[in-house]
Amino acid sequence: MSRLPIAIVSAMHHELRALLPLLREPLPVRLAGRNFHQGTIHGQPVVLVLSGIGKVAATTTAVLLMHEFHVRQLVFTGVAGGLRRGVKVGDVVVARQLLQHDMDASPLFPRFEIPLTGRTRFEADAGLADALAAAAQRCLDRPGHLIGPAHLRDFGIGTALVHQGLIVSGDTFVSSAAKSAELRALLPDALAVEMEGAAVAQACADFGRPFAVLRTISDRADDQAHVDFNRFIDEVASVYTRAIVEEWLQHGTRR
Ligand code: SAH
Fold this sequence. Notes:
Helices cover 36% and strands 28% of the residues. By secondary structure, it is an alpha/beta fold.
């Protein structure tokens, strides 16, 4: 098996903080204002890093990981707003495809198409997405075991589902029912909205490097989207991410 590292990229501090204690033989490297944490988790060489928020921050991070750290694959973790009906707070979405919902060079190019590439949607690596979805399913069979019954109650989480499909990204925190309804109408198959995944997808496509995006649903991208956001990331999403990443690194990375 290749000893080139796997990148695990977190959008937010809390998530990186949850993963760092798993890292053995840590070797931090500072580059472009970011701390890249090299080391191993369950014997697998990894690089952990905080990307920052938005498409540019995520792209810079992904390019550095591929070009400077030679990662063999990249997994982006974070939270997202649920768009499609049935994608609820506490569920997990694994991307199969990604699209930039704020890309619009019409009428020169069709809406959402990346100009001069002819591409609108980018495919996540199928094997990686399968492995992450399987790991998420194993972890979420009993979400109460992960976060405890009090948190399930506080955040209104009953059963936690793992969805797979289209994730859309743009440089906007979608926090109004009107904006999410517009996205749903334009992109009916979109499961969730966030701010980084499709940018990472485009950069990884340029480098021909496999990637996946794993998101916990923190909100419904509506007028309540900001409520308890940081608490949710700290107490639910970070716990999910750590459990799923550990499960995957221990049992599911063979390719
Ligand atoms: N309050 C946070 C900022 C969060 S920005 C802080 O202070 O750090 C939103 C982050 O969550 C981004 O990484 C984005 O990818 C994701 N996200 C969650 N819900 C979203 C939504 N409804 N719209 C867009 N991005 C969302």
